[in-house]
Structure to design on (386 residues):
């Protein structure tokens, strides 16, 4: 796992160091809201933060291989990348060396990890169409290679261009040791992340949680614009928290099997599924709109994933905003079901408690800002307003 730490560079404007990754962030002064309740005063990002760029080999994923994602750490502004930010890629040489030797338990020597180099190709997209690429080569060794000062290999700086909304980063590590072939020449690994802020009239509002606290954030920062558009994203972890998902009874039957010491009984479990809908109000004379469902989205770029084999789920919807409204209010309505599925369980050895395919409602809750009769409120500003 690669962990990149950010610290502010003395005397530099909007520049931070991420372990071995230098990030110049001109948008730092206009940071997205962190844990803001709409209607409260905007909170600016802290000057020092921690960001993690993680990499691991997942043997249990549907397609075993190397997986990457960017996630937040303590003190970070947030986990999102934005146009205009400048990066200097840095890779932990020991972690990259492990890609060549995943089956070896022996710790590599310093001289071995010093031979690691990394080629990276960033491919930029806008609305699904490729709009450009940038090649980088990490060949500058930094750090002593100790536990307190891990060795990194760094690339040249690059800036996330305007007008893009996604980046695919292909990483190919090499071993340049004497007589050693570039072992990873045919072993490349790809991560994909969203990039935000290219269109200030189009915003993403994510409703997630921080521990046991609800939070909602405008990813791009700033105000939501009249006549623009907004994507509402409601996360699975927030749903789990609100319905107290962990501890729910999910057994749907039992099956018998032979163990070493005779017959044993195995519980059969169903799957918990959330349905999320929302109600929205605009002060444009149209009042409250009819409650509408959010669409379940697997592996959305708006959320990080703990392991690739268990993808995250968000519920999302994109709204067109009235040009004459100055306020938007929202609430959410959650229904949690136990889905019955006996596929793979032999009927002659099992006791099924419910009907195959049955969806049993186990909990229903409403998500309001501060309880009943309160809503999440967002002001809408004129497009182009400062």
């Amino acid at each position: 796992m690669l962990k990149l730490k950010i610290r502010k560079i003395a005397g530099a404007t909007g520049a931070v160091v991420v372990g071995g990754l230098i990030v110049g962030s001109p948008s730092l002064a206009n940071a997205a809201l962190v844990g803001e309740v709409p209607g409260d005063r905007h909170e600016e990002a802290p000057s020092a933060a921690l960001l993690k760029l993680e990499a691991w080999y997942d043997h249990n994923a549907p397609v075993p291989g190397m997986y990457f994602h960017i996630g937040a750490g303590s003190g970070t502004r947030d986990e999102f990348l934005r146009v205009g930010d400048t990066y200097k890629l840095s890779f932990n040489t020991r972690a990259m060396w492990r890609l060549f030797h995943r089956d070896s338990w022996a710790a590599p020597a310093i001289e071995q990890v010093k031979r690691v180099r990394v080629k990276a190709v960033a491919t930029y997209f806008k609305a699904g169409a490729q709009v450009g690429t940038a090649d980088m080569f990490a060949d500058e060794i930094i750090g002593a290679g100790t536990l307190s000062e891990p060795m990194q290999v760094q690339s040249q700086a690059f800036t996330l261009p305007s007008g893009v909304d996604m980046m695919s980063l292909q990483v190919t590590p090499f071993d340049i040791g004497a007589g050693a072939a570039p072992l990873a020449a045919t072993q490349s690994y790809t991560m994909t992340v969203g990039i935000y802020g290219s269109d200030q009239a189009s915003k993403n509002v994510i409703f997630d949680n921080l521990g046991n606290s609800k939070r909602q954030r405008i990813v791009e920062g700033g105000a939501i614009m009249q006549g623009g558009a907004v994507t509402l994203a409601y996360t699975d972890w927030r749903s789990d928290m609100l319905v107290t998902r962990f501890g729910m009874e999910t057994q749907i039957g039992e099956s018998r099997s032979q163990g070493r010491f005779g017959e044993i009984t195995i519980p059969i479990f169903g799957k918990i599924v959330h349905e999320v809908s929302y109600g929205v109000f605009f002060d444009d004379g149209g009042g409250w709109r009819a409650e509408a469902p959010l669409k379940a989205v697997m592996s959305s770029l708006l959320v990080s994933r703990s392991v690739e084999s268990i993808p995250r789920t968000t519920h999302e919807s994109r709204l067109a905003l009235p040009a004459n409204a100055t306020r938007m209010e929202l609430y959410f309505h959650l229904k949690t079901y136990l889905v019955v599925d006996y596929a793979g369980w032999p009927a002659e050895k099992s006791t099924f408690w419910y009907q195959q395919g049955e969806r049993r409602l186990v909990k229903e809750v409403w998500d309001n800002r501060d309880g009943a009769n309160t809503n999440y409120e967002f002001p809408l500003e004129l497009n182009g307003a400062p």
User: Anything to note?
Assistant: The chain has a mean pLDDT of 78. The chain is about 5% helix and 50% strand. Helices lie at 93-100, 110-113, 236-243. The first strand starts at residue 6 and ends at 8.
